[in-house]
Amino acid sequence: MATTRTTARTKARKRALDVLYSADLRGEGLTDALARTVEDGNGPTNPYSATLVRGVAEHRERIDELLTRHSQGWTLARMPAVDRNVLRLAVFELIGVDDVPTAVTLSEAVALVRDLSTDDSPPFVNGVLASVAEELEADAGSPVAPTTSEQTD
User: Fold this and answer.
1) Which residue numbers delimit the NusB/RsmB/TIM44 domain (predicted)?
2) What does the angle CA 133 – CA 29 – CA 22 come to, to the nearest 5 degrees?
3) What is the pTM for the complete model shown?
């Protein structure tokens, strides 16, 4: 069963990336892009894709702040669009999804950019995410990011 779940989540990440990438190129809001793909009949079929897109939308400010701080020498605008959006997805998984181990998040992100981006992208994405994960793990026992309105920073 674990293989099926991993395969389903891998596909869900790829579909969520498609929505984020499309929204980025169109200058469209993430929830609008998600709604558009659903209306067009091209929306994600796995609920985890929508969870990822909505999570990135909800936590975008914090995600981008973490990425800006940890992507030494690179602004978000300078990054290839695929890398930027894979990083956003992965950081959301790190801060907002409890049942995905950090190593899986990093591995899945590196695999996406290996398949879809530049030759330099896998080590860059791995380094940025490892740095973000290290900071998050060093956070002393408090929730890393609120996932409901009941939690606060």
Assistant:
1) 11-133
2) 80
3) 0.84
